[in-house]
Amino acid sequence: MRPSPTRRTVLTATAAGAAALTATGTAEAAPTSADRPPATAQRPTRELRALLREIDAVRIEATVRRLVSFGTRHTLSVQDDPDRGIGAARDWLLAELTSCAEASGGRMTVELQSYVQEPAPRIPTPTKITNVVATLRGSVTPERVYVVSGHYDSRVTDVMDAMSDAPGADDDASGVAVVLELARVMAKRRPASTIVFAAVAGEEQGLFGSAYLAQQLKAAGTDVQGMFTNDIVGSATADDGTRDPYTIRLFTEGVPSSETPEQAALRRSVGGENDSATRQLARFVRDVADNDATGMRVRVIYRRDRYLRGGDHIPFLERGYPAARFTEPAEDFAHQHQNVRVDDTGKQYGDLPEFCDFPFTARVAKVNAAALWTLAQAPGTPKNPRIITSNLTNSTSLTWARGPEPDLAGYEVVWRETTSPEWTHVLPVGDATTHEVDLSKDNVFFGVRAVNRSGLRSPVAFPSPQS
């Protein structure tokens, strides 16, 4: 077991950092978080770089334009017309994912996941809602699952208008195109854990398709350790014409939607508002996908979603799964949730493909791919992490359960100041399930992550107190 740092060494390092401050109180010589990766960052492997090179903006554009060609994909639109409506889009998506699965050697299966939604505020009559789902079974730890989704339904200004053209290029053919491209590239590979690729319906009417998918997984006891939805990832141009083509936002809640009163009381007593499993997932995405291999900056937003909006990650959050939402850096609201029209000034409204930036969406797909592939190949997030609080001490004892992975090499303890958003220190502790650090648990936040023999790291697990 490697020796832990002592309070003396940490205090010395802290003093050295303080000495770098200038008389004005700024650390002019110290790089900022924007200039350097977090201490927990992982460089892309050769395998991952090869995978990312296969992501094709031309294919993504073709998918978006094909989905737009169905006229409308409104959840209440016709389901038995071969050329128009949500049913035609559903059948085309099924054929596309089935084609992807042919390269998997039987590891990928594709299904239509349907149910009848009873009347609700935006569902006037019983309506069949169908998700198109492809599952790529893991070859080592198939019981561990990661989900990526986009919604294939669309809408116009009136959310109940199922007849008008609703092209839905950005919202959300772009997200579905990401999902299809990931399925195509990954189907011929062997992830250690299972990846689910889902095109869900009913999002605009109330997140119905994703809620059904999340509930099916929950009812089956599925160990979903991460879920991403891609919703409005088709453009890098804001409503004022400014562009930010190398940034993607990742919305991540802090206090869990599924938190019980007991868990809330515990959080209030020891902190952790910024340490939910979803926030750890977001940090992991930055660790593995904010780099030269994707060409993107991941801007983590400490919110569940935007004001007045919601997405398909929310039903997963409500069921206790870590989940986050990718969305373009600044939206143009003239090109989403709008009837296709030209106003008196000549301004074009409507969610049309000519307002999409397909190379940008391809880079978003690379961010997703880097996160999902690394998650699937790395060890799972450590289970049952605990920080021992039975005695008043100025050191910290941590425990956790050993993972089931056959290539597990060991664990790392990480920590940071309570005011820091990123993990700043990493300590290898070997193949152990307990470790004592000569630092006070009252002063910093701790976490634990697993490492395999290839050097891939899991997301960090935040410990709960155990007396």
Describe the protein.
With 467 residues, the chain is α/β, with parallel strands linked by helices. The chain is 28% helix and 24% strand. It has helices at residues 7-19, 46-53, 57-68, 86-101, 169-187, 203-206, 208-219, 261-270, 277-289, 314-318, 358-377; strands at residues 108-117, 127-136, 141-151, 193-200, 223-230, 247-251, 297-301, 323-327, 341-342, 348-349, 383-388, 396-401, 408-417, 425-430, 434-437, 444-452, 464-466. It is globular, with a radius of gyration of 23 Å. The two termini are 24 Å apart. Residues 11-33 have low confidence and may be disordered.
What fraction of residues sit in β-strands? 15-25%
What would you call the shape? globular
Number of strands: 17
Number of helical runs? 11
The arrangement of helices and strands along the chain is: HHHHEEEHEHHEEHHEHEEEHEEEEEEE
Radius of gyration: 23 Å
Gap between N and C termini, in Å?
A: 24 Å
What structural class do helix, strand and pairing data support? alpha/beta
Write the layout of secondary structure elements.
Layout: H1 7-19, H2 46-53, H3 57-68, H4 86-101, E1 108-117, E2 127-136, E3 141-151, H5 169-187, E4 193-200, H6 203-206, H7 208-219, E5 223-230, E6 247-251, H8 261-270, H9 277-289, E7 297-301, H10 314-318, E8 323-327, E9 341-342, E10 348-349, H11 358-377, E11 383-388, E12 396-401, E13 408-417, E14 425-430, E15 434-437, E16 444-452, E17 464-466
Parallel strand pairs: 3-4, 3-5, 5-8, 6-7, 11-17
Antiparallel strand pairs: 1-2, 2-4, 6-8, 9-10, 11-12, 12-15, 13-14, 13-16
